[in-house]
From TrEMBL:
Signal peptide span: 1-22
Keywords: Signal
Keyword Signal: yes
Name used for this protein in its record: Outer membrane protein beta-barrel domain-containing protein
InterPro entries on file: OMP/PagP_B-barrel (IPR011250)
Gene3D superfamilies xrefs: 2.40.160.20
């Protein structure tokens, strides 16, 4: 495995570990909140796909979203993302956030790495559901624009 891929894998594992620790520190008032599992349908450069993931709360204004998805980009491509969200409106039912993170893609025998920059918003539906929309640009080995619409539960 190339050193850059190893470093990316270690970063994703580290973000998962931090998020898991932060998730255990929530108080009992968070019980009415969604479990922060997410499912979305989207497009990456016009190619359809889907993703599933988990959001880890790091505080009132911070969260990390760890995602896995598949897109039909000429051939089926698996994409793994870890994105940091800074919540600009934490007390509002409409949560707006910029995001930044890493992207790791696998297609056949090709592995690619990139970075994510974008923005998203989520809004409450009937408890325990909320909807979200995210737009991001992936730069690096496989550049492109992604848009995902989905639900948290």
């Amino acid at each position: 495995m190339k050193p850059l891929y190893t470093q990316t894998l270690m970063l994703v594992i580290g973000l998962l570990a931090i998020g898991s620790f932060a998730d255990t520190k929530t108080n009992s008032t968070a019980a009415a909140e969604p479990m922060d599992i997410r499912f979305g349908l989207g497009y990456f450069d016009g190619d359809p796909g889907m993703q599933i993931g988990k959001d880890f709360q790091l505080g009132q204004r911070s969260e990390v979203a760890v995602l896995a998805g598949g897109y039909n980009q000429d051939r089926f491509t698996f994409r793994f993302d870890a994105d940091y969200h800074f919540i600009l409106t934490p007390d509002s039912p409409l949560r707006i956030y910029p995001l930044a993170g890493v992207d790791f893609a696998i297609r056949s025998k090709e592995n690619r790495i990139g970075g994510n920059l974008g923005a998203g918003l989520s809004f409450n539906l009937a408890q325990p559901f909320s909807a979200f929309v995210e737009a991001k640009y992936v730069f690096g080995d496989w550049e492109g624009f992604g848009l995902v619409i989905g639900v948290h539960f």
